[in-house]
Amino acid sequence: MPQVDLTIENKAFPDVRQELNATILALLTDNSGATAPPVTQPYMKWADTANMQLKVRSPDNLSWVTVARLNQAFFGILPADIGALTASLNFSDIGNRETAKANLGISSGTRNRIINGDFRVNQRGSSSYNFANNVYTLDRWVQTLSADGGTLASGNITRQNFTAGATVVDGEPESFLRITNTTQGTSLGVNSFHSIGQAIEDVRLLSGQRVTISFWAQTTITGKTLGVELLQNFGAGGSAITNVGGQTFALSGTWQRFSFSLNVPSLSGKTLGTSHHTFLNFFAQAGSGFTSRFGTFGWQGVGDINVANVQVEVSPFVTAFERRTIADELALCQRYYEEVQIILGATTPGATGYFHQIYFKQNKRVAPTSAVKTLNSSSNFTIDSFTAFVPTCVLSCTIPASGAYSANALISFNAEM
């Protein structure tokens, strides 16, 4: 169908009639076409025939918001079986309900199952995290890597900020994650890989449902491939890990949004152990041992791989990135990791034993591993041990039999998966 600029110019009669007819037809067909209309206005509609999506222009006229599917019953908003819609408007399928809420602009704060998907929270505080296996970086994001007999690439992971007002990524996010390699490694084995990912607590959360994974990415490495994979991990003592599925994506020097959908298997016949979860992984490099899973590729050069606005949602198609408030995002992160500054000082009343209790800002997933991260100062004061629980931790300390004591320390509490 025609897409026009919706402007009737001052022309001779036959030309004016043609423009009127073309404009009316464009309006009647919701500006349908494989590419966006040439001129946009806030709240205008576009039937995107390339992706079979109905889109509405954002109020600021900067982006398109997907509101429905053109090739699904009830536009993908209601269940295909309308009988499942009860008098109280409860949907039989949670995926359809969450999709409908997202498309109507209603956010429960839990549609995106990824925590810190926009990389704003960095409680560990480092400005740069060197490549290393099983090391956490920005909150909830952990590196896993192996050279499989070779030598690993060198580099680091950092948090970068977008320029205020930049529109290269929808929604004007504040920050993004950058993977920078300065070498490509040598003699990497067939099972070598370099990845960063996140565990989504409770494998039951996504099981048996249609899930869509989306993210924005950009690179300075010519021809760079990025692999993405979803796994079901049934925990210690549980069934073997299930590879749900994955894909590779060709990145470029321009920010692009990528997405794919897959069916997560049910838990039928599975045994759940402790700390079970679903794991999302981004691969910067993968040996030939990963060919059957999603593909194989090297670093393909040195430079930056940038990732922003990562989302995993129960939905048959991609929706706008759900951005929670920074207070909510931080609280979600602190279920898994928290740092507490203690400043103590007093004159000993005569005893040498001292206990100090710390109450966490958020209850932890499990009793956390505790450690003194930074000891800024200490005088006649020693932390002997930690006794951690889900809501609190008790420090057992030694102080002098008489005289003053003081301490200033930063303590970390880790309850990651």
List keywords for this structure.
417 residues, mainly beta, Immunoglobulin-like, six-stranded antiparallel β-sheet, 3 helices, 8% helix
Describe this structure in words.
The protein has 417 residues and is mainly β. It folds into 3 domains: 91 residues, no CATH class; 196 residues, Galactose-binding domain-like (Jelly Rolls, Sandwich); 81 residues, Immunoglobulin-like, CATH 2.60.40. The chain is 8% helix and 39% strand. It is built from 3 helices and 21 strands. Strands 4-7-8-15-10-13 form a 6-stranded antiparallel β-sheet. Strands 5-6-9-14-11-12 form a 6-stranded antiparallel β-sheet, with no helix packed on it. It has a 3-stranded antiparallel β-sheet with strand order 1-2-3, with no helix packed on it. The longest helix has 16 residues. The protein is elongated. The two termini are 52 Å apart. About 4% of the residues have low confidence.
The count of domains is 3
The shape is: elongated
For this structure, what is the CATH homologous superfamily of the largest domain? Galactose-binding domain-like
Q: How does the major sheet shape up?
A: 6 strands, antiparallel
Please state the structural category: mainly beta
Low-confidence runs of at least 5 consecutive residues? 79-95
Fraction of helical residues: under 10%
Count of DSSP-assigned helices: 3
Report, as a whole number of angstroms, the end-to-end distance. Answer: 52 Å
CATH architecture of the largest domain: Sandwich
Binned strand content? 35-45%
CATH class of the largest domain: Mainly Beta
Strand order of the largest sheet: 4-7-8-15-10-13
- Average pLDDT over all residues: 89
